[in-house]
Amino acid sequence: MKESTYDLVVIGGGVNGAGIARDAAGRGLSVLLLEQHDLAAHTSSASSKMIHGGLRYLEHYEFGLVRKALQEREVLLASAPHIIRPLRVVMPHDTGQRPAWLIRLGLFLYDHLARRERLPGSGGVDFRRHPAGAGIRPDFPRGFAYSDAWVQDARLVVLNAVDARERGAQVTTRTALVGARRRADAWSLDLRAADGAVHSVQARLVVNAAGPWVGTLLGGPLGVATRHALRLVKGSHIVVPRLFDHSFGYLFQNPDGRVVFALPFEERFTLIGTTDVDYDGDPAQAAISAEEVDYLCDTASRYLARPVTPGQVVWTFAGVRPLLDDATNNAARVTRDYRLELDETGAPVLSVFGGKLTTYRKLAEQAVDRIAPRLGGGPAWTAGAMLPGGDIEGGDLPAFEARLRRKYPFLAPALAQRLAASYGTRALRILDGVDSAAALGAPVAADLHPCELDYLVREEFARTAEDILWRRTRLGLTASPDAAARLDAWLTGAGAGAARPTQTV
Ligand SMILES: Cc1cc2nc3c(=O)[nH]c(=O)nc-3n(C[C@H](O)[C@H](O)[C@H](O)COP(=O)(O)OP(=O)(O)OC[C@H]3O[C@@H](n4cnc5c(N)ncnc54)[C@H](O)[C@@H]3O)c2cc1C
């Protein structure tokens, strides 16, 4: 730790904690962001990866939430055009489900609830002529199309943490809050590192952004009573080899009223999800059940020309939504909105309940607006700011990729594409000083060259092969079985190709 007293200690390196740390550091506050595992190790890397208004929430009359999320969709698209991209979603019309007039009304609202500058509006689709028609069964000749956006969820978290650090925050992973003593003017917090060592830091204010653990922290180390109850709802996804050759996502309605998305994923795959199952286990152990796999396969197979079977599944993941308990019976209907609760019965603690990836920036801004005045922080600033690597001219990712390929003609096209789409302009830092294929060196594993690995360790808090293969990248999906061992060997300096690159940024 570079210092032992902070204005603010943020507990939880998911999207909300990282977003709050970034915002607060940018307002001049001294900040420690604390994560017990890796950044985005839990809910924030297990999402459907959509930056969306939430068309479905209109049915629950959540107009305020949808409007806020649609506004944020525009802000986030502008701030990170490398990791957030437009996604056109098509919805086959099933005459046995929601009537066409209702869907048209919903889409009209979706188009008009907030100002839309970057994305085309919704419309009808004739699947007999539309490119997405080839993927679905001929008994669904018509449907609808609308716009949303797609995000590399774990990278969104990491970029917020990177920005927080560049603005002065201390970011510490693999260290948990395990104890706390509260005085009138400050907290004394006990932090346990991965090696078991415990040490203390002081904080004028604590932010509890522990996602599914928010209640555990309040009732445990922080010892604070709360008005809000949390409802933990597990959501799972399956990944199968690519089911269609176009870039549209599908939204499928299920007879139970829920919806399931089938989305293009990592070039060679299709992502199908999600489920909504009440959950009372350890959030870190959430895993898909056989029933959920069947449910997702069955729902997709009702619509897709080629049925999806459990045998096709190459990867699954599950996360736990920390939702505000609004006493709704149906887990799918529980509100996705958030609440911030400030307790000042001693040194203050601000707790985050609920939320979505899509609204994280707004949530962070509102959180820091509430606490900055008492800590002497400056005004809100993130609405027009870029995330690291997002300063791509005109937000034009293909043009940036073309420039990257011209500058580094020895890069294989797939590598250039991945570097541009993952790191944006920071790809130039990764490649700084690399002037030939020889200087790039052989990949250590899975298309990961030493210069990229070095960057991930130095700049993006990566510590293990799993951090690299499943969160900083998603190369775990295509990597060879020995990739993790090779990376771990490189990370500990023991790998055969462990020579570290010499360039600096
Ligand atoms: C299946 C599913 C699909 C979703 N799809 C979407 C979507 O498409 N679009 C969208 O906008 N939203 C989506 N969401 C919602 C979104 O993913 C969550 O709202 C968001 O990720 C929550 O982030 P968080 O920071 O609150 O929690 P988390 O990401 O869980 O972060 C909390 C962190 O706190 C850490 N922590 C806990 N206790 C301690 C401690 N004692 N010390 C230190 N650290 C601690 C944890 O390790 C964890 O990393 C989805 C959620 C799920 C589950």
What does this structure look like?
Strands 3, 4, 5, 6, 11, 12, 13, 14, 15 and 16 form a 10-stranded mixed beta sheet that branches. The chain is globular, with a radius of gyration of 23 Å. The protein is built from 14 helices and 18 strands. β13 (259-265) and β14 (269-273) form a beta hairpin. The chain has helices at residues 15-26, 63-79, 100-112, 153-166, 214-219, 290-303, 360-375, 397-407, 413-423, 427-430, 437-440, 450-459, 465-472, 483-491, and strands at 5-11, 31-34, 50-51, 84-92, 123-126, 142-151, 170-172, 175-182, 187-193, 198-208, 230-241, 249-253, 259-265, 269-273, 277-278, 315-324, 338-343, 349-354. It binds flavin-adenine dinucleotide (FAD).
Structural class given helices, strands, pairing? alpha+beta
Which outline best applies? globular
Averaged pLDDT, please?
Answer: 93
How many individual helices?
A: 14
Main pleated-sheet profile: 10 strands, mixed
Unique bound compounds: flavin-adenine dinucleotide
Using the CA coordinates, give the radius of gyration: 23 Å
**Percentage of residues in strands:** 15-25%
Q: What is the helical fraction, as a range of percent?
A: 25-40%
- Low-pLDDT sequence parts: 496-505
- Counted beta strands: 18
First-residue to last-residue Cα separation: 24 Å
Task: Supply the key terms.
505 residues; 10-stranded mixed beta sheet; 18 strands; 23% strand; alpha+beta; single chain; globular; disordered C terminus; binds flavin-adenine dinucleotide; 14 helices; 8-stranded mixed beta sheet
